[in-house]
Design brief:
Layout: H1 8-11, H2 18-61, H3 76-109, H4 115-147, H5 153-222, H6 226-238, H7 250-264
Helix pairs in contact: 2-3, 2-4, 2-5, 3-5, 4-5
Length: 306
């Protein structure tokens, strides 16, 4: 809009009395300065939050846990990355705080020192003075008009001349002053928009740096091998130690016991070179030895009674 005529603010003059117009103008100038200052104050507090966070992170980086005596094994590399990333993240947040102060806070605080901002304050004073002169001239002319023919002709002419001059000055300068205010306001809005956009860019950049550290650490975490940890512990626990003989099992112990018992029994005498001894023959008992009361009946054979 720099190459185009700014008509929106000057058009308000058609709806405002000179005193009202001067008041609106002055309040708008105050608001321009107030908004910039309040946003700058908020950014200052935001920066202080970053500074406190940086201090806490750096304190955490010095907190050595686990201690040097702790065996981390497969967790050693990921844990080192976690600890190292704390300092890197602290530096990233420190950088964010510096950029908030330099790129955002200072420009907002110095906006009122710009030439166009200084000029608008002078214009506000001039506009207020012109509005006061015009209203006073109008009031003087109205009072003389109410007197009618009783009013002094010279005073009436002087009042009319003063009113005309004040009106011409107002009509000539007030639109230009309001146009200048619109130009400054547009510049202020664009400046604040650009600065807050830059603020979000700085926030995004910082978040991306933190994300990059997290991704790198996560990659190491995913490489942790449980089997490797188990085997590593076994190897360390048994390194340099001779394998112990196998302990006897229950079955082998029983077999050994039986073998010992058999070997301890006396062996039968040898029969080599001696007369063979036949076992005695078993003769049937005589008939009278068989009792009639014997529980085993004697089976009759054919021919016994023939």
């Amino acid at each position: 809009m720099e190459d185009m005529a700014r008509t929106e603010y000057p058009a308000m003059l058609a709806n405002l009395q000179p005193g009202q117009a001067a008041h609106v103008f002055t309040e708008r100038v105050k608001r321009i300065n107030r908004v910039n200052t309040e946003v700058a104050e908020w950014l200052q507090e935001r920066r202080r939050v970053e500074e406190q966070y940086v201090q806490s992170l750096r304190k955490l980086a010095q907190f050595k846990v686990p201690n040097g005596q702790t065996e981390l094994s497969v967790f050693q590399a990921p844990w080192n990355r976690i600890v190292d990333s704390v300092e890197a993240i602290a530096h990233s947040h420190h950088l964010l705080g510096e950029r908030i102060e330099k790129d955002l806070e200072h420009p907002l605080r110095n906006f009122h020192n710009r030439t166009d901002a200084q000029n608008i304050n002078t214009m506000a004073s001039n506009l207020t003075a012109m509005a006061r002169d015009l209203e006073e001239a109008q009031d003087r002319s109205d009072r003389l008009s109410r007197k009618g023919g009783r009013a002094n002709t010279q005073k009436v002419d002087a009042a009319s001349s003063r009113l005309e001059a004040a009106s011409q000055q107002w009509e000539a300068q007030a639109p230009f002053i309001f146009e200048s205010l619109q130009a400054l306001d547009e510049s202020r809005v664009n400046n604040l928009r650009d600065l807050l956009t830059q603020y979000q860019t700085h926030e995004s950049d910082q978040a991306q740096r933190t994300q990059d550290h997290a991704v790198q650490t996560l990659a190491l975490m995913l490489e942790i091998d449980t089997e490797r940890e188990i085997h590593s512990f076994v190897n360390k626990a048994t390194a340099g130690k001779t394998r112990l003989p196998a302990a006897p099992t229950r079955t082998s112990t029983r077999q050994s016991s039986i073998s010992g018992t058999v070997s301890s029994a006396p062996a039968p005498p040898s029969t080599a070179g001696s007369v063979s001894i036949h076992p005695p023959s078993i003769q049937a008992p005589p008939d009278d030895d068989v009792s009639e009361h014997n529980s085993v009946p004697i089976e009759a054979k054919p021919g016994w009674f023939n």
